[in-house]
Amino acid sequence: MKFKFKKKGSRMLDYLTFPSIYYFNKEKNARDEEMSEHVIKDEYISFTEKATQLLEPYKQDINKFYQNDIYSQYDYPNILLHAYSPYTYDNEHNYLDNLKEKDEQTLRDELIKSLMSIENDDFEKPKDVSMSESEALSFINDLKIDSSNKWNLLMMIQSPKGYLNDYIKLLKNVEPYFNQLYQQYEDKVEEVGETISNQLSGKTNEHFKKITYNLINYEFNGNDLCEFYVSAIFQYTLRFIENEDDVCRIVWGLESEASFKAVHEINENKLIQRVKVFKALGDQTRYGTLKLIASGISSIKEIATKMDVSSATISYHINEFLTTGIIILNKRKSKKSIYEVDYDKLNEVINDFKEDLNFPE
Questions:
Q1: pLDDT tens digit string along 212-252?
Q2: Angle CA(29)–CA(34)–CA(37) in degrees, nearest 5?
Q3: What residues contact 299, with CB distance under 8 A and at least 6 apart?
Q4: Of 59, 107, 117, 298, which cross-links 102 as Cys (Cβ 3.0–4.6 Å)?
Q5: φ/ψ bin of 96: left (φ > 0), alpha (ψ from -120 to 50), beta (otherwise)
Q6: Is 242 helix (H, G, I), strand (E, B) or coil?
Q7: Edge to edge, what strands does the sheet with 327-331 contain?
Q8: Which residues pair with 338 in a beta bridge?
Q9: From CA 159, how far away is CA 43, in angstroms rounded?
Q10: Which range has the worst mean pLDDT, 53-57, 65-69, 161-165?
Q11: How many CB atoms lie within 10 A of CB 159?
């Protein structure tokens, strides 16, 4: 399999989502994740603090387009990128200029289809959709997100052109700050992008397991080419972009490999790992999520519905399970990725636990 690093595309994706970095430290502090103290570098914390300071004057506008939850899928840029693929454009401005040419009804219909496919946990948008504003209101009201975010989504549907123009205005206002922050990592983005793309081009599955330290089990089958994007803004991200065009795409954070290594080293300490596993299981919603995954349910949307919580909450819990090694992400010949319980890892933890407490034979 051949991997191709997309330098311009990497910058474009970071530009379109840049304002949401405003919430990074707030989310990190609210979660109080012990893992992040050992994994996330001080340099990146300083970077996000600087970004937050620069973006503070635009807080109100950022709240309009980005949810205050790094695990949410209902940010406006995510809905927009799902509605209109950006991957064939040379730069972000050409992409946005093209969107401005869309008529009101077409833009509304595509945003609704995008929102429906995200809510249904399906990367294939509905082919035909006809939804009145009242039907859209009912649909949005049923989403498990807070009322302010529901209001923003409704405004997106009621005035799609105006909403898009306001989003573009925000991006233009913060563009100098984006350029200021991005340029310090631009050379490293290219270096990491080219290096890892070359590593993965040949014995892909083997090398991917190596750079993720066996924490992610993702089998690359059915594609001759995979587009590789590197994020300088979200340096600890890893996203597999699934679109209806069935093209393999990966967004890799600038420090992703270092973070996988750090998590692996933490997990090498068996006592620390056992404590982490039991801590991860010490939450009722999280435990229920694991039971559903063990029963064969892998859809975040379906799990969220059964647990009566938001999809963002389930995404957060699944991320915790991934970093503790309780579950693995598997992608085989099917189009969709699935989560599976790592029974070998859990058996090891349980056996070590019994040994710690001198369980009778």
A1: 988 787 777 667 889 999 999 999 999 888 766 678 899 99
A2: 80
A3: 121
A4: 107
A5: alpha
A6: coil
A7: 217-218, 327-331, 338-341
A8: 330
A9: 40
A10: 65-69
A11: 14
